[in-house]
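Justification of resources, computational component.

The compute hours requested in this renewal are based largely on the per-chain cost of generating structure records like the one below. Each record pairs the submitted sequence with a full structure-token output. That output is archived, and it is also reused by downstream analysis tasks.
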Amino acid sequence: MAEEELAEAIELEDETEEVPDNFVDQMASRIGIILQREMDPTVGATEVTKYIYETTYPNKVNYFLDAMEMLHESHTTDKYAALTWSGMISAAAHNKDYDTFMHAMLDKMIQGYYGMEKPDAELKDRKFSAFTTIMAKTFIKMIELNTKLTDTAAEIYSHVVRKEMELDAQAQKDEDEGGITLPNMAKLYDDVIDYLSVRSEFKAKSLGEENPYEHVAQLKERLGQSRRYVVQDVMNQRALEKKKQLELELENQLASAEELILAQEPYVEGLALFIHEKRYNYKFLAVEKIRMTLQLLGSIVGAVYFLVGYMDLWGMDWIDGTFVCLTMILFTRLAGGRSRFKSFYPIDVSKELEQYSTQFINVFRNMSMEQMEHFLVRQIKLDRNRNYLSMIPE
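The structure output for this chain reads:
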């Protein structure tokens, strides 16, 4: 409600207050004068931040962006735009009002980007948004003035990534309710990376020629790292919030007394079937070992008789040895087949286990944590279940 009243107040002030035609020119000139006058760039940037805040906040932030665009039109004044942004970030870290202004400026840039409020700018046969150009040029000039400002550029860029991800999530949430819908276009933070990538392109004319835009490529890599970090951080936060929401829903949900009573029998039967199924593999392998051992022994006996007959020992010739060998192999295959051991194999109860499990798991989903705790304690007290549970490793 307070935000709506503030928006209405801003709109009313926009209608009643007239902005001079040369307001942007005056602002850009004033920024340059302040930064030229102060010998210490830090002091100058702080004074510029104070001037911009008092002049443009809250309803003229868009004019500040116009002034930044104007400063970037000349190589003699583009450094003032970089110093202004770096000073704004430094001041925002110690002043809540300046921090609010910084976020309002970034929100205005994102709004203008998706609203296509300014004509596109060209760079090497590529078109980029004017807001992309302002941000990218400012970042480039910041590191040209001082490489230590790379962290400042990364901080501003991280704010943009986080804001666009929040805006995108809100748009997806409200889309079914007839809320905001973002245009089908690249994100501002992706467009900035693309701009820096194009700007850093260089075709060397000789083998020893160095890339004069190497610092732009390094800036692109640094911002790319910030983007990956923020995206992962936001995804982790959303996963944590979703987990907390599920836990809260689990605590608040309740199962009826009738459901708790009906779930007891399926739980007991399901636990018994689980123990039976858990032992299935061990029993199956034990029977298989015996069956394969019998087959192997018969084959070995047949092979021994074949060798005895082949060497004419004990009054046997090779024909008798071969006959006995084939007979033993055939006998072991018939007597040791799986069909003969069918009664010894364990019974697979996975189908029955699934049926019983489905019955009590559906009730578990409706239980609160307290209900589930009482239910399990009650089941553990039963002698039959206690014996089954002792067979399950912790």
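The chain has two domains: 2-239, 257-390. Residues 134 and 143 are 15 Å apart (CA to CA).
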